[in-house]
Amino acid sequence: MKIAHFVRKDFLTINPYSGLNAIKNKLLEHSAIVVQDDEGIFYGVLTTQDIVHNPKTLIIDCLTIKELIDGEISVEDTLFKMDMAKTDVLPVGENGKFVGLVFKNELYKYISDYNAELENTILSRTKELEAAIATKDLVFSIIAHDLKSPFNSILGFTELLKNKIRNLDVEKSEKLISSMYFQARNTYNLLENLLNWARSNSNQIVFKPIPCQISIICDAIINQVGDSAQLKNISINSFHTNESYAFADKNMLEVVLRNLLSNAIKYTENNGKIEIYSMPMGDFIEITVSDNGIGMTEEVKSKLFKSDLHESKPGTDNERGTGLGLVICNDFIQRNSGKIWIENNAEKGTSFKFTLPIYKADIYQSHKAEVLKSEK
């Protein structure tokens, strides 16, 4: 850092032939006084040390700091010159002309603040590196365990079908195929969450909010997870008004709804019920995914959206998971300026609720204008 950034230009000036007694109190107030004559010629800087070490009658006889330092030199070199001159202040010049003063205490404060900022940056980068390493280890763990295990089951089912299909009746064959499909669907969902999470952490997911009709998107997601619900004979009902439009990223919204519905199916017993409904709440739309499943404790609720992932509680059919889906939900909802939370139902089950900004034509047009401007 160049010393020119620390030059103080609000200084007091006195004539070199002034008497000392007239300016002693002013010198104590200002720490240093610039000595110039009426024609603007610079003579030096007067400090309290000058008077102590050389108590002459006229100011010009006491001056010890006369040399200008260049405003282009560094803070370190300036402090070195101050130490050599045994002073706390030096005059600064540009092209040989006096421009202002620089003080040691201000330079030390800058160095102290810079070191503190550097230390905070190092700590922050260290935490980011540790998080990245933990993320990498977790990804490998999920690939090695949560993706490998389902494939072992699928391979076992297919081998059984291949070797004994002629000896199996239709009912047993259908049961095996259903189990294979169930494992494949869960594995696909986990892989999709893993990819979304990796892309989200590397900032590769582009945020593009558009008007989203909640009822249409919910119906599409219900169709996607319908087979899993049908295996457990779970009914899914969706209730929305035609005016339920959110201003959100459609892909992120679909990921959130798919994860919440999959979780509801996972923790709902056979012949259970799931409901999805939305309602306007001021500038937001509140969307609820409610089930009459096994519910959860307050301790479990407090850990669900945290990034320190852990193996989640098995589902009612012993479905396994990592909790990764809810971490992604929390991230995507926050990116859409909403919030997500959990409520236990009065009798039985759980309700996941989240909010999204409601669609307003004027805000949408303003957003489109900003996007077009940035693209140009």
Commentary on this structure:
This protein is of the alpha/beta class and 376 residues long. It has two domains: 3-108, CBS-domain (Roll); 199-365, Histidine kinase-like ATPase, C-terminal domain (Heat Shock Protein 90), CATH 3.30.565. It has helices at residues 24-30, 48-53, 75-85, 104-164, 170-201, 214-231, 250-266, 298-301, 324-335, 361-375, and strands spanning 13-14, 32-36, 42-47, 69-70, 89-94, 97-103, 209-213, 235-239, 245-249, 273-281, 284-291, 340-344, 350-357. The strands form four sheets. A five-stranded mixed beta sheet has the order 8-10-11-13-12. β1, α1 and β2 (32-36) form a beta-alpha-beta unit.
Question: Would you kindly provide a brief summary of this structure?
Answer:
This protein is an alpha/beta fold.
Assign the CATH class of the largest domain: Alpha Beta
**How many H/I helical runs?**
10
Overall CATH architecture of the largest domain: 2-Layer Sandwich
Radius of gyration: 36 Å
Helices and strands, in order, run as EHEEHEHEEHHEHEEHEEHHEEH
Pick out the low-confidence regions: none
The strand order across the widest sheet is 8-10-11-13-12
Strand content: 15-25%
Biggest beta sheet attributes: 5 strands, mixed
- CATH topology assignment of the largest domain: Heat Shock Protein 90
Strand elements, count? 13
CATH superfamily of the largest domain: Histidine kinase-like ATPase, C-terminal domain
Mean of residue pLDDT values? 83
Structural class computed from helices and strand pairing: alpha/beta
Our measurement of the CA-to-CA distance between the termini, rounded to an integer number of angstroms, reads: 36 Å
Helical content class: 40-55%
The coarse silhouette is elongated
